[in-house]
Write the structure tokens for this entry.
Amino acid sequence: MNQSPSDQDYPDWFGRCLAAPSTPGETQVQGCPIHYVSWGDPGRPGVVLIHGSNAHLEWWRMIAPMLQDQFHVVAFDLSGSGDSGWRKRYSAVQFASEVMAVAASARMAPRPFVAGHSFGGLVALEAGHLHGAGLSGVVLVDFTIQPPGETDSVLEAYDQKMTAPVRPTRVYPDKASALGRFRLVPEQPCQNPFLVTYLGKHALRQVDGGWTWKFDPGMFRHLDRGDRDQGQQKLLGLSCPAAFIMAETSDDYSMRSVEFTREITAGIAPMFDVPGTRHHLMLDQPVAVAMAIKGVLTAWHAALERPAGASQG
């Protein structure tokens, strides 16, 4: 099934992304329907793409088609987001199970790769921690490891979200009114505003009385994300390789957490910035981000395919 462009004129590169053949799918994970879309040949190495909080799989629409020439790519909506179902309770462990279930449902080749952006990085790390033997590598996109026992203004804001009263999402009388209220979180200037509009359109659902957002407003209030002080232990204990692809500038974490992540990954996991990007880096430099992910994955796959004892030439 192809995703067709709307009546908006897009740049040629994004028009090609929208026109790339893709197939929707759905699987059940612990009684909840999980929606996904796949691109590419199932015979190729697999990669599962995980979006951030209150987002949806279309955040990867500008990335996934650029990977499909060498990979079988799947992006999915976490439960509580996009076109997937909602739960009464959420957990990082459960999200990790969704990653593996989607890979199985899409009939991916054994040991796929996983890449997660922002909150999706937490899910990717949890998948690597729990299911690392069944994965070939984990890419963490603009995600950091928090120093154990430390806190900062970013974490304090997150904790406030976890304890805030749950309010239903606002219903707007028409789609245009809702789109006018769509915002990136954290907010940032965007070099490709048409992508923000595209994502806004796919963040909405029609309900009685108008339009509202697809995400579950109670997800964070009912989320068990695990012990944040275990991030270092989980990362260093992975049985598969890991890499960090970072924004040049980001308001999603503290500089201390960046420094700490660089310290603990030095000589163990590559960590590099994509120039000219902020936290939502796939909206600023989508081609560069896609090639960064592809470069990491192809290097890992080549290493896996190399006969034991063979030199790199």
Q: What stands out?
A: The chain has a mean pLDDT of 93. The CA atoms of residues 138 and 242 lie 5 Å apart. The chain has one domain: 12-167+220-305. DSSP finds ten helices and twelve strands in the chain.
